[in-house]
Design goal:
The complex is a heterodimer of chains A (about 775) and B (about 160). With about 775 residues, chain A is of the alpha+beta class. Helices cover about 30% and strands about 25% of the residues of chain A. The longest helix of chain A has 28 residues. Chain B has five helices and five strands, in the order ββαβββαααα. The chains are: A alpha+beta (about 775), B alpha+beta (about 160).
Chain lengths: ~775, ~160
């Protein structure tokens, strides 16, 4: 590895603009003649829209228009789609109600838009919105799954009787039944996975600009995947054909999944910009983010595991209810099915698995992918179940895990996934060593002497990343291919532009992707630019989510790079009068191996563009592109161990130590990888201790601001000790697996296992607030 | 509407604003200083922190009119030309930022923390002091490292002056 090549902790190129206040986020952009949108949102969880009187608002100075749900439906803007078709057990397709961008007749969650005010300034739009009178007829609402599934419960959509979207299953029910019938031990657990609000720090925003002369739209938006946004807006929402719609996702302030989806506000901004003939800007506030950004998690599950007399796992049975909120968001259907149940084998050799998942409508904000998407739910369930088993068997939880680890690869699980490689003992050993696991009993005793309850908790997670082989996901119902594309342009002066369909919103692609080029060509990363986030510049892309950008996006760049190198070698060989096979690339030069003859990259590039002396028949130029479709998922895995103390008097938890040992395959930039792990761990810890999106019985959200929803702050969380074990991913030439979600997938079980270990009571739900922990210690008396 | 005159990043500026205008919107919308961000509506997240007369303040809690006559410094005003402020450099060198959205507020708060505590900073103090700045990307680990690193750099810089 060179100073800036693969494996080097290169300081980020993109940082200069962010630390000097020169980042360019959507809300920083102003267009000439721009108007401002303010949405009028339902205060009710379920209601009929009886009438909307906008006459007073429209008469106010500076108000350009008030547009309603009826108008957007009349103009044939398409309903929002769900892009992954799931089939129920009985063979029936999933049952979806229509989701118009603004509600013309019925609102089904608090915050659903019914109208929008367009005005000359943000304040004028807000003021005018106050003057719009919406008359609602309230309907009974259901805010949680048990209520929604009761006979006679209020119904959200006529298309989905009983509020059930689907009743899906995976695995071999009979084999699992047989496993349980011969089991020596059965361990069971009921648990919920708490609903979370993703809360990227930059609220969503959109600016739509319609050019009437060209019949062309430009959309600036906070998106993790601008090409997918263009595709969906074009193919399903009737906004404009793709060549008449440019989507730009400039600097984006975090996503965590919530900015994958195409939301009503972008659709309305585009539609409205054409209607009013001026650019329309919408910038969400934090409460709008709580009300309308897709939430995450929200499962209720029952799990049972069968063991033989030697504590070997025989079978796993899981029944999960997954809350989808009021409408099916873009990828929501896949999250509690193919992104969840397929990971229920964890790191373990479980011969038989059967999982049933029922998707449920409630009068709440739609739920979709949030960092980890399905995999945190699987990991939390399994790792709490295994910990419960160890306590039931009075066994060391590390030993029970080790006894059941998969050690032979490839390994076919009973739930689709074929793990390609891994070394679960290595990451468990590394984590146990880092936290001095052997010394824990003495530390626990010392803490007890001081009146503190100390606990230790393990979590051995596995996830599937690098989503995904297009053919495989297509056969499972996905509506899109999940390849990635790249283009490399070597300019005549030898500088290089890499155009990628991945999108960076904190991941550091502008640095790590350059590191690959530096590694291959030996040029400094200052000579390389990464271009992303603009459908007019980049040929296509599926965007960034599911920890896919290194495994899929960077591999696409590598494939394009190989084509560039092959052509450049031909040009160099021709110029040096050597054989193409004798050309090697070193430090930015093309050398004839075993001689002192060489030609520098800029001269090769110049030769490609002057075209004065190219090999016969060769096209001028030095620019290549590639599409890369992965052959399998990648399987990052690792062990997290949390050691903490609980104050018996208050129920407050204090971290003593938190260690992580991850296997991400090859690391491109260890500094950036560790940053991703830190962030993921804190999101997992946030879920375990603090975060919970709560509704009252009428579907009113009671956590719709940072005053009410407990975000992890600096003094809530510890510093971390990280280490890496390595098995190279055989599925891609770089050997990378992906690191973006691991922390959020593995951390929550480690925390809860540690608390329940400390307090000696396994009945504890997330978030484990001091109140809940206190009650778990002292009972409800 | 009122005319508000103040000094921003060393320059005298004047703007015609509605009386209800917040300082953060004066900076962003009228002066095009978009490095100061808005991340919440409740003065919780700290993305909008600037310095008013040398003290870190959430610019979403201050009316533009209240800043009349004040000396305001924003993230755009702390580097000396091409030379980064030690806190900016420490954030970069310690990978104390990812998406960059909370970063300007973090840096402005962190400078104030170092000023107030001088050389007496430790991890626990930094974590407690950063309570009013929310980051969703970094898990704070590298932000804390950056602030401690910058505290050392700022001491050296001060000693050299």
């Amino acid at each position: 590895m060179g100073m800036e090549g693969i494996g080097a902790s290169v300081v980020r190129k993109e940082d200069k603009r962010f630390i000097t206040g020169k980042g360019r986020y959507v809300d920083d952009i102003k267009l000439v003649g721009m108007t401002y949108a303010h949405f009028i949102r339902s205060p009710h969880a379920h209601a009929k829209v009886k009438s909307i009187d906008s006459s007073a608002a429209e008469a106010m100075p500076g108000v350009v228009a008030v547009l309603t749900g009826k108008q957007i439906v009349d103009d044939k803007v398409g309903n929002l789609i769900c892009g992954w078709a799931i089939t129920s057990k009985d063979g029936s397709p999933m049952k979806m109600g229509a989701w118009p961008a603004m509600a013309p007749e019925t609102v089904r969650f608090v915050g659903q838009a019914v109208a929008v005010v367009i005005a000359d300034s943000k304040n004028l739009a807000r003021d005018a919105a106050e003057a719009v009178v919406v008359e609602y007829e309230e309907l009974p609402a259901v805010a949680d799954m048990p209520s929604a599934l009761k006979p006679g419960a209020p119904q959200l959509h006529p298309e989905a009787p009983g509020n059930v979207v689907y009743d899906w299953h995976i695995g071999d029910e009979a084999a699992v039944g047989a496993a349980f019938s011969k089991a020596a031990h059965v361990v069971s657990l009921e648990l919920t996975n708490n609903r979370l609000a993703p809360n990227a720090m930059e609220p969503r925003a959109a600016i739509a600009d319609y050019d009437a002369a060209e019949e062309h739209f430009t959309l600036y938006t906070t998106s993790q995947n601008p090409h997918v946004a263009r595709l969906v807006l074009s193919a399903f929402y009737n906004i404009a054909p793709e060549h008449k719609l440019r989507v730009i996702a400039p600097d984006v302030g975090g996503g965590f999944g919530s900015k994958i989806f195409i939301y009503p506000e972008e659709m309305v901004a585009l539609w409205a910009s054409k209607k009013v003939g001026r650019p329309v800007k919408w910038t969400g506030d934090r409460t709008e983010a709580f009300l309308t950004d897709a939430h995450g998690r929200d499962h209720i599950s029952k799990a049972e595991m069968a063991f033989d007399a030697d504590h070997k796992m025989l079978g796993l049975r899981v029944k999960t209810h997954a809350n989808f909120g009021a409408y099916m968001s873009l990828f929501s259907s896949s999250v509690p099915t193919y992104l969840y149940a397929t990971l229920l084998s964890g790191q373990y050799n479980i011969p038989a698995i059967y999982a049933e998942v029922m998707g449920v409508y409630t009068n709440t904000t739609p739920v979709d992918a949030y960092r980890g998407a399905g995999r945190p739910e699987a990991s939390y369930l399994l790792e709490r179940l295994v910990e419960t088993a160890a306590r039931q068997f009075k066994m060391d939880p590390a030993e029970l895990r080790r006894k059941n680890f998969i050690t032979q690869f490839p390994h076919q699980t009973p739930v689709i996934m074929a793990y390609d490689t891994g070394d679960f003992n290595a990451s468990l050993d590394a984590a146990m060593k880092a936290i001095d696991y052997a010394g824990f009993p003495a530390r626990k005793a010392a803490a007890k002497a001081q009146g503190k309850l100390r606990g230790i908790g393990l979590s051995c997670y596995i996830e599937a990343c690098g989503i995904a082989p297009s053919k495989a996901v297509g056969s499972l119902g996905a509506g899109v291919g999940l390849w990635e594309s790249a283009e490399i342009r070597v300019n005549p002066v030898g500088t290089i532009e890499v155009l990628t369909g991945s999108h960076s919103h904190g991941q550091g692609h502008e640095t790590t992707f350059c590191q690959l080029i530096a590694d291959r060509l030996g040029v400094p990363i200052s000579q390389v630019s990464i271009v992303h986030g603009d459908t007019d510049k980049v040929q296509f892309g599926m965007g960034t989510y599911g920890s896919r950008s290194a495994a899929v996006g960077l591999t696409a760049i590598l494939k394009a790079m190989e084509k560039v190198e092959a052509k450049a070698k031909k040009i160099a060989a021709h110029a040096l009068e050597a054989s193409e096979g004798d050309i090697v690339i070193e430090n930015g030069e093309f050398k004839v191996t075993g001689t002192d003859k060489s030609i520098a990259l800029p001269m090769v590039a110049l030769a490609a563009y002057t075209a004065h002396n190219l090999p016969d028949g060769m096209e001028p130029g030095l620019k290549e592109s590639a599409f890369y479709d992965p052959t399998n998922f990648t399987f990052p895995a690792g062990t997290y161990i949390c050691e903490l103390e609980v104050d018996q008097a208050t129920g407050k938890t204090s971290f003593v130590n938190f260690v992580a040992a991850d296997d991400f395959g090859r690391l491109i930039n260890p500094m950036i990888v560790e940053g991703q792990v830190h962030g993921g761990l804190v999101q997992g810890i946030g879920q375990a201790l603090l975060e919970h999106a709560v509704y009252d019985g009428n579907g009113q959200p009671v956590t719709a601001s940072f005053m009410d929803y407990a975000m992890p702050r600096a003094d809530d969380v510890p510093s971390f000790k990280l280490s890496h074990t390595t098995t190279l991913c055989p599925g891609n030439p770089l050997g990378v697996k992906g690191c973006g979600e691991a922390g959020a997938i593995g951390a929550s079980a480690a925390v809860i296992n540690a608390i329940t270990d400390a307090i000696g009571n396994n009945k504890l739900e997330m978030p484990a607030t001091p109140d809940r922990v206190w009650h778990a210690i002292h009972g409800n008396a | 509407m009122s005319t508000v005159k103040l000094t921003v990043n060393g320059k005298a500026v004047s703007a015609e604003v509605e009386d209800r205008t917040l300082l953060v919107h004066l900076l962003r919308d009228h002066l095009n200083l978009t490095g100061t961000h808005v991340g919440c509506d409740t003065s919780q997240c700290g993305a909008c922190v600037v310095h008013i007369d040398g003290r870190a303040v959430k610019s979403c809690t201050v009316l533009a009119g209240q800043a009349a006559g004040a000396n305001v410094t924003t993230i755009e005003g702390i580097a000396k030309g091409d030379e980064l402020h030690p806190m900016q450099a420490a954030f970069r060198d310690n990978h104390g930022l990812q998406c960059g959205y909370c970063t300007p507020g973090m840096i402005m708060s962190a400078i104030d923390i170092v000023h107030r505590h001088g050389g007496q900073l430790d991890e626990a103090t930094v974590r407690e002091e950063l309570e009013g700045n929310i980051c969703r990307c970094t898990g704070y680990h590298n932000i804390v490292k950056a602030v401690l690193d910058a505290a050392g750099r700022m001491k050296v810089a001060q000693a050299a002056e």
